[in-house]
Amino acid sequence: MWTLAPWQGRFLPHPLPPKERLRAYASWCNAVEGNTTFYATPTRDTVETWAGQTDPGFRFIPKLPKTITHERRLGDVEEELRAFLAAIEPLGPRAHTLWVQLPAAFAPADLGALAAFLRRLPGSYRYGVEVRHRAFFEDARAARLLEQVLAGAGAEWIPFDTVTLFQSLPTSDAERDAWLKKPRVPRRSRALTDRPVVRYLGRDDVDRTVEGWRFWVDTVAAWLREGRSPTVFVHTPDNAEALPLARRFHDDVRAVLPRVEPLPEPVPAEPPALF
Known about the structure:
- The protein has helices at 18-26, 36-39, 44-52, 66-71, 78-88, 111-120, 135-138, 140-153, 173-181, 206-212, 214-225, 242-256, and strands at 31-34, 59-62, 98-101, 127-130, 156-157, 160-161, 197-201, 231-235.
- By secondary structure, the protein is of the alpha/beta class.
- The protein has a domain at 160-258.
- It has a three-stranded parallel beta sheet.
- Helix 6 packs parallel to helix 8 (140-153) and helix 11 crosses helix 12 (242-256).
- The radius of gyration is 19 Å and the shape is globular.
- The mean pLDDT is 95.
- This is DUF72 domain-containing protein.
């Protein structure tokens, strides 16, 4: 995500060598979704460069590879899991939560596979699971069974809030594409652990995106008061304004809870003018 083209030269300095791009992103935000790991396990050398560009307190939420979660559906994945865990080891404490995103076809009947998989995972990491089957959101028994499985492993349920996206018809190509690809499920906001993770998807219109996250501002402030350490990712369909929006969300939470530390000033996209 830190190499998104619309950010280059606007929010992040451009051009930058690959080994400096994450450092520039980390001056804007203190966490990142590891979405690229879903498509391929990175080399250990690559992950070492990620660690070298970020402070120990920076949060990576790397997604398990799709070969594990989507292609093999959590079964017979020992080799792939071992390779993934070896690759991300250089992140150290930066590996805040390992993200198990399950396909929409993963239903309540498959919870046995999830429970067995979570039992095999090393206890040195924290885990979060994202489900997309509507039964987990609409059937109280299915939700309760999933929570029991997650609680047994100390894992979090990662909600993907798309309510704002689907409130009205799309008005851009990016929104139309998101309508086709993103899950349309009810909002869920119950935290199971001290490290809740939220994915929020707004609209390409900034005002509508901000209006849609009001619920999460109050929820996150409440979690902080309870002593939890939440991580929130702010998206829009085109993600063009995601960096300043993420900082604006942080500021909105600080307006409710002033004790929250401000984010550092980001690296300027352009060098300062001489005159």
